[in-house]
Amino acid sequence: MIDEFPDEELYIDIVFVEAPLSDSTAMLASGARALCLFVTDRAEASMLRVLHAYGVEQLTLRYAGRSTVDREKAFELGLRVARVPIHSPTSIAEYAVTLMLTLNSKVHVAANRVRDGNFSLLGLVGFDLADNTAGVLSTGQVGLRVIRILRAFGCTVVAYDAVGVAGVEDAGARYVTFGGAAAHVRYSRAARAARA
User: Which residues in the chain are classed under CATH 3.40.50.720?
Assistant: First the structure.
């Protein structure tokens, strides 16, 4: 364990701030040499001038996008901007399928019930993905991986992309035309009775 930093330049003091970056919170960056932005923070020209005046020299972004920072103004002010170069398409695909499974199994509802001391499974049973059809809109790097994961679950997969992508059929999906979307959900007996 290091209890002393021989070179003061290597020492980093990290301060976590929950509040989003705004005109009223920018002063919290006073004295900081670097600022790490969250995906919802906006660093437009006026904000960059304020941050620069407070001594900020570098902005780091915790996401791959760049649209939230006025890069021309940052360059003009001499602020360095660093970002995540790319997110793993596999981890994004796995997360998307995790969300599908969470909604299907109602894990979010179950977690709230358990927190309240209710361990009933009533209304929490989802359905098997196997032998069902799943649709994937956009078959880029992430979409292709989602297709592979859903196929591993035993799903039939239909896909749509404005530009066909090689490898989709090889992954086991079938392209379909898409002119719009409508969701038609099966009623439960209780819902049918309530409508009658």
Answer: 8-82, 89-179
